[in-house]
Amino acid sequence: MFENLSNRLQAVFSNLKKTGSIDEAALNVAMRDIRRALLEADVSLEVVKSFISEVKEKAIGQEIIQSISPSQMIVKIVNDELVNILGKDQSPINIEAKKPSSFMLVGLQGSGKTTSIAKLANYISNKFNKTILLVSLDVNRPAAFEQLQTLANSIDIEILPKKENQTAIDIAKRAITYAKNENIDLVLFDTAGRTSIDPSLMTELSDLEKIINPSETLLTLDSMTGQDAVNVAKNFSEKISLTGSILTRVDADMRGGAALSLKIVTGCPIKFIGNGEKINDLEIFHPDRIANRILDMGDVVSLVEKAAENIDQQEAEKMAERLQQGQFDLNDLLSQINQMKKMGGISSMLKLIPGMKNMGNNNSNVSDDAIKKQEAIILSMTALERRKPKMINSSRKQRIAKGSGTVVSEVNRILKQHRKMADMMKKISKKGMSGIQDLGLPQDLSQIPPELFKK
Ligand SMILES: Nc1nc2c(ncn2[C@@H]2O[C@H](COP(=O)(O)OP(=O)(O)O)[C@@H](O)[C@H]2O)c(=O)[nH]1
Ligand SMILES: [Mg+2]
Description:
This protein is elongated. It has an eight-stranded mixed sheet, sandwiched between helices. It has helices spanning 3-19, 24-40, 45-61, 70-86, 113-128, 144-155, 168-181, 199-212, 227-239, 257-266, 287-295, 298-324, 330-343, 346-350, 368-379, 383-387, 394-404, 408-431, 434-439; strands spanning 101-106, 132-136, 158-159, 186-190, 216-222, 244-248, 270-274, 282-284. It is an alpha/beta fold and 455 residues long. A hairpin with a 7-residue loop joins strand 7 and strand 8 (282-284). Helix content is 57%, strand content 8%. It folds into three domains: 3-86, Up-down Bundle (Four Helix Bundle (Hemerythrin (Met), subunit A)), CATH 1.20.120.140; 101-295, Rossmann fold; 324-453, Orthogonal Bundle (434 Repressor (Amino-terminal Domain)). Bound molecules: guanosine-5'-diphosphate and magnesium ion (MG).
């Protein structure tokens, strides 16, 4: 999978590298080539558009990091955006504690349901040591049961025996009762498919969903069908509550467009990929590893990550120096908020100030909403206001509140917080640590701006 895309993207980067410095024209050429490469990989147009605009925006707004070349920076941006559209984090499967827990596999005929059920059963029984029951609910297709039975035997996993003239609903009920009696951990239901999206199939599946109450409803999709797979996924996700998908036949798919489009178009994460016909040909879907496979530039990506960490460190040290000198204006508060976001809490920052190493506590949880608000408030101030907060009178406060979508009391709160922190910094810089006691403030410095630490 992804061979062509991979080659195309690498060509784009080697061209960029030759260009040396990257101006807007060079960036536009690169973006045009990336767009073409994605479209040729059969990535959905919607996804291509958002991909390009994200990458472009980030490339333009990017702070310059010395020691990193612009083309390396763009590799990193493209990498991050690939991870992003692939779904960011790996989505684990949800095997509930209750017994039995159930998974339902759905999808069109021939998409790989039965094969994937067996692969999944094999994976889960090996990895989680669970007792598993396989159930075939496909009563339409001749030999559907036998196909699953052969697979079940080959991996030594139990299958619910066949009973003539039962409907899918009857079988599902029988399976649940059986699993309860036999103390089975997990029941995997293989459902019937159709050659195309069909209302009667959807009705059957949603009836089954009610009876089975699955903790995972996984849609199998043939990745070779590209954008058709994405449309199928869209259709299914409108009718039943999917928890994820299994993309099959990626071993035969040269383009990879479905993988790159699915998450954004359907909102549903890819959980596994099937990369062959054999029982072990199932892979957990890791967006970062797949992105790495596509770009094949892992060394550049980690180089840029390291350099960015260094920059954060340098910024934090600069700030610590200012704090020590008792300078602390709203710009400092703003960059402190930013640092906190990156570094995970004020405690990690205070560690950089001599004598404060032990002041940090566990309060490193930063509420995103509170932080966003505080940021918005400070950003709505003029440069002068940020340097001289004292000049912020009530009409200015009103303007700032309006500009940041907050209310005056919230502006007041952050000004008060800033004053407290600035006072404290001044005391500390004059008197060292004993200054803290003088202020009657809690020893625990990280409690100073409480809004920042609400969970
Ligand atoms: N190459 C390859 N073939 C697969 C994969 N998954 C399923 N198949 C094949 O696709 C065909 C249909 O699969 P099946 O599980 O019967 O589909 P179902 O109708 O959805 O149950 C079978 O021949 C499988 O061997 C895969 O990941 N890679
Ligand atoms: Mg089948």
